[in-house]
Design a protein that fits this description.
heterodimer; A: 285 residues; alpha/beta; six-stranded mixed β-sheet; 9 helices; 28% strand; B: mainly alpha; 81% helix; 0% strand; globular
């Protein structure tokens, strides 16, 4: 069952097509990552999906209904953009205000615990650090225990610890059957969390599929080994202290290196990360 | 309804913790009263008190609606609130409730000041009438505030609201008797919403019959300002959410 859907959505700003016939769906229990460079149309797509923007053509649905109707947003959770809070409200007051909008919200204590807000509840929002505010923002998206959580860059500006708290929340929400749509700059984040990735560029979806499949599509394995500065081996590129190559057949590639008498200290052979897979796609395409 | 109350509470708390907002809004009218009204206190203290109460109440309309909306409408926080399962009317209703609270406080402070330092006095039933006139008479100014809020840019709203508020209050005769205004100002005065408010307040205070011309004028201004506010709202929605 689809909980969120864009159907052939086109959106222009002036003559500039921010989105060009974009269709996507998010199903129950799924974590989908929307990837793409700045200005690719991620935010516009999210804006249309949340009912904040009206598409020029096509339509958006959440839980099968128009997102512009308040009723259809009963089971939707969203993070505000950073620094967007009323500065003089306290964390507890904010959490309670947002909780009141949902039929079956999480207990406030659960929210404090899950997002490590316990020590902050009496503080005013204006006095929090950027990372603390970000945590509060992510918490707001989960408060209603919604069927769909939409996170725009949820871990930008977080330290490692806070980031793993957010990742944990995303995973346990998905494990409980909730769907998540997130945008991110960090490919490793999509790689770690998302079952499916959608890559959007210049307003169009260019790649879409299960994360594993997108990686496999690139069909490549990375082979890399340490090499002294200045050393050059045909078919490899330098990567810091390493030389590396992407290949469809790692065994053959290593055999050829050995055959050519290239020393291979610190040899690594592994499948590409999502980031590397997308990079090869860009280079080849 | 429950949500509107909660939003009103949050909004009120938010503002009540900004001394930079509430001190000037609440105290300024009383300070002006001390400057302008006390010298003539013995003669028409009660009338001055009533018209300054009008000055206090419409100030909240100008600032909480005008400046508040102009600043909030561009804020990511308001955008976030639109993703919650709640319609925009709840937020507007909350703003109205919160503004009413501040308006009451401003008026109460002014009346307390007037009763303390002048010999203003009203028979009990007139207090009720005065409150009713203040409540209804502020409606056009609330719409004017909303219009400013949706038309003025965030940074321009405060000076614009200030200018309109002070000029209209002076020229409408809320500070000094209209007969005491310079001749030119006095002649323009008849065409101002603040003059209509002043006339309605004075009529109530002295127990004169209902000032029909004032109420017709206030109703007319209410319609015009509501229309401008609605246009501004639609324009703003179209620009940000289309």
């Amino acid at each position: 069952m689809s909980v969120a859907e864009l159907e052939r959505v086109t959106k222009r700003y002036g003559a500039w097509p921010a989105l060009d016939r974009v269709s996507l769906t998010v199903s129950k229990g799924e974590v989908v990552a929307l990837l793409g460079p700045n200005g690719a149309g991620k935010s516009t797509a999210i804006g249309v999906l949340l009912g904040l923007r009206r598409p020029d053509s096509g339509c958006a649905r959440i839980f099968g209904a128009d997102p512009r109707r308040p009723d259809s947003r009963r089971s939707l959770g969203v993070t505000p953009q950073e620094t967007a809070f009323p500065a003089t409200l306290r964390v507890r007051e904010l959490i309670e205000l947002v909780r009141a909008h949902y039929e079956r919200p999480l207990a406030a204590a659960t929210v404090y615990e899950r997002f490590e807000l316990g020590r902050l509840v009496k503080r005013q929002l204006g006095g929090l650090s950027g990372g603390e505010r970000r945590r509060v923002g992510v918490a707001l998206a989960f408060i209603g225990d919604p069927g769909l959580v939409v996170l725009d860059e949820p871990t930008t500006g977080l330290d490692r610890e806070a980031r793993s708290a957010v990742w944990g929340a995303i995973r346990s929400h998905a494990a409980g059957g909730g769907a998540i749509l997130l945008t991110t700059h960090y490919l490793e984040e999509a790689d770690a969390l998302a079952g499916r990735v959608i890559l959007i560029e210049a307003g169009s979806i260019v790649t879409e599929g299960p994360t594993a499949q997108v990686k496999a599509q690139a069909g490549m394995t990375m082979v890399r080994f340490r090499a002294a500065p200045g050393t050059r081996v045909e078919g490899t590129i330098r990567d810091g202290h390493y030389l590396r190559l992407f290949t469809g057949d790692a065994g053959d590639a290593v055999a050829r290196l050995v055959h050519a008498g290239v020393p291979l200290p610190g040899l690594e052979v592994r499948p590409l990360t999502l980031e590397e897979a997308l990079a090869t796609r860009e280079h080849s395409g | 309804m429950r949500l509107a109350v909660l939003h009103a509470r949050a909004m009120t708390l938010e503002l009540a913790r900004y001394p930079a907002y509430f001190v000037p809004t609440l105290v300024l009218p009383s300070v002006f009263f001390l400057f302008f009204a006390t010298p003539g206190a013995h003669r028409d203290a009660t009338v001055r008190m009533a018209s300054f109460a009008g000055f206090a109440v419409i100030g909240v309309a100008f600032f909480q609606f005008g400046v508040g909306i102009a600043i909030d409408r561009g804020s990511p926080w308001e955008t976030y609130l639109r993703t919650l399962p709640v319609g925009p009317m709840v937020r507007l209703g909350a703003r109205l409730a919160s503004a009413s609270l501040f308006a009451c406080a401003a008026a109460a402070l002014l009346i307390a000041t007037a009763l303390a330092v002048t010999d203003a006095s009203l028979p009990p039933p007139r207090w009720l009438e005065l409150s009713a006139v203040l409540l209804v008479g502020t409606v056009p100014f609330a719409f004017l505030g909303i219009a400013i809020g949706y038309w003025a840019p965030a940074k321009g709203a405060l000076p614009i609201a200030n200018l309109l508020y002070l000029v209209l209050s002076y020229a409408g005769g809320l500070w000094i008797r209209p007969s005491g205004l310079p001749r030119f100002v006095g002649s323009v005065s008849h065409f101002l919403p603040t003059r209509a408010l002043a006339d309605a307040l004075v009529a109530t205070t002295i127990g004169a019959p209902l000032a029909w011309h004032a109420w017709v004028s206030l109703a007319g201004f209410a319609l015009v300002f509501a229309w401008i506010a609605a246009l501004g709202y639609r324009r703003d929605e179209g620009r940000r959410f289309s």
